[in-house]
Every structure is written in structure tokens, then in C-alpha cells.
Amino acid sequence: MKQFVYLILLVIGIAGCGKLSEGVVREIEFPEHDPQIALTFMARPTADSLVARAHSSAGILDSIGSKRIMEAIFTLEHTSGTAITWGGEVDWIQGLGHVLTDVELADGQWTLTVEAPQFETVTATQVMPPRIDSIGDYSYSYASDLANEFVDEDEFGNVYLSRTIEFELTLPDRVESNDHFLVRAQKAFNWEDFEENSEFGGYAFLNPRVEDDPRIVWNQLCGGYLIEDIDAVEALNGLPFEIFQEAWGPDLDVVVSEPVVIEICAVSPEMAQYYQRLDLISNPSGGPLFTEPVLAYSNVSSGYGCFGLYTSSTLPLQFD
């Protein structure tokens, strides 16, 4: 009897393997996609110019893909009633988007509305983060020390400088809020600095001194480190970084006096989450075969894009 049962199971297994080897083809119908406005606008309180971008969303079977919406009209409205409107062909700059100039945004809540012909109007709301600075109620503190410096001058008077700087940063901590920050070196490495007609050049790398510090996460799209506060824990005291600087040019005094400029930003939680998700999508770290895909974060009513606010402060580090 047992042999008979084993024989039946063996036949079923062979038949199943045969079907798998032949493959299974199923036609899956994708639902039709109704194009929506996808917007991206990251703004700070004061700026000479800011760029807003509006695209049409596209379905997976759309051969044309997403297209920029030149006719889009943007309106920023503060809870006080102040409103700023720009967009359309007047403010459109090819290759960039719709440019808003001479920006002055107050603290508090702002709502962004985007309208375009043949599209449903979309909205998004943000609260301006506190204005971060080295002084004031929402301030950071730092310590820097020149750990190593090398200067070389050739027979033609061309100077090369390299420095290693130990940099320690303490960020503000609000007990009632979970804050997000971005820290980056403003002048990153650029191959254009090596062009023959560039007399002066230079760059700086900012890296954590503690490997795999869970508080400090590199974000490729932002070109810096995203840092998140932890409720009721003073975890952002004395964050250890190391800065590597290189500079070159024909004048010793100019090269040696070249500062390292660090930008420190307070970013809205929505803006931080948007870039965190995009970085995970662009740089997946692997995982089980059947894990759920990472979806892009959006705080826009259409479900596409992000409206973010941030404040920033520049910190020049100079060593004689």
C-alpha cells in the first residue's frame, strides 16, 4: 500500500515539474492610468531664485513617459493670507523649470497649489522648520581642529594644498519635536576643476569619523548626510566628522586661505522622508527575493512628488 502511495506522489511530482519546465504564461491587464500633476518644489526662506517643476505622471505602458508641464501655475499661500503666484511660459526656463525669484518666505505654514489645463489641481502643505544658525534659539555648535596639513609649491609657483580637519557638530534638540537635518560640504569634487584653463580649484569631502554611525546617513541625491533627532534623547551632541580638503592654484596666499564651507540645514520631515525613499529606490541594498518594493514618498494630493521646506546656515572653516 505504501509503495502504491509513493508511486502516485512520484507521478504527480514529475507532472508538476514538467509543467514548470514548459513555463506558465498569463496575460495581466494593467489598469489605464489617468495622468496627474507630479510636482517637486524645495524652498528655503530667502533665496535669489528657486525652481519648481511640474510633470505629468505616466503609466507603466505609456511609451512617451512623463512630460514637463510648461503651462503649470504655482501659488504659495501663507496662513496669514499672503500669496505668491508664478509659472506659465513667463517663468519657464528650458532645462530647469519654473523659476521664482527674490524669495522671502515667512515662518509658519505654507500651502502650495498647482494648476494646469486638462489636469486636476493638486495641493501640498508644509510648515517652515526653525531658522537654524550658529546663534539664536535654534542654534548649532561646533569644534574644529586642523589634524594634518601639506603644502607643496613647484618651480612655476603653482601651489597644492591638502588638509585633514577633525570636525565635531552638535545640533539643536527640541524636546517636543522630532527634527531632521542635512549636513554637507558645499564645494564637492568636480572634474571641471581639472580643466587646463582653471587656475584655481579645490573641493572638500565630509565623512563621519565613526563608521556606520546610525545617526548619520549618507544621501546621494542631497550630496550630504541626513540626520534625524530622537525624541527625549540628546543623541545629536558631538557628532564626529572628518573633512578632507584639497586646493590648488598659482597664488600661495589665495590657496592657503581657501575656506572649507559646511552647509547645515534644518529640513521638514516630509522633505527628509522624500529623499530617504528616493535614495533607497536608486540604491537598493538587496534583500529577500519576494520583498515588497520601496515606494516613493509623496505629500502631494495627487500622490506624486513633494513640496518641502528647509532653512540653512553656512559655516566657513578657515585655517591660517
Question: How would you sum up this structure, described in words?
Answer:
The protein has 3 helices and 18 strands. Strands 1, 2, 3, 6, 7, 12, 14, 15, 17 and 18 form a 10-stranded mixed β-sheet that branches. The protein has a 4-stranded antiparallel β-sheet with strand order 5-4-8-9, with no helix packed on it. A 4-stranded antiparallel β-sheet has the order 10-11-16-13. The model is unreliable at 2-12 (pLDDT under 50). The protein is mainly β and 320 residues long. The relative contact order is 0.16. A hairpin with a 3-residue loop joins strand 6 (92-93) and strand 7 (97-104).
Helix content: 10-25%
User: What is the helix tally?
Assistant: 3
* Helix and strand sequence: HEEEEEEEEEEEEEEEEHEHE
Shape: globular
Q: State the total count of DSSP E strands.
A: 18
Radius of gyration: 26 Å
Biggest sheet architecture: 10 strands, mixed
Mean pLDDT: 85
Distance between the termini: 93 Å
- Helix and strand composition category: mainly beta
Low-confidence stretches: 2-12
User: Strand portion, in percent?
Assistant: 35-45%
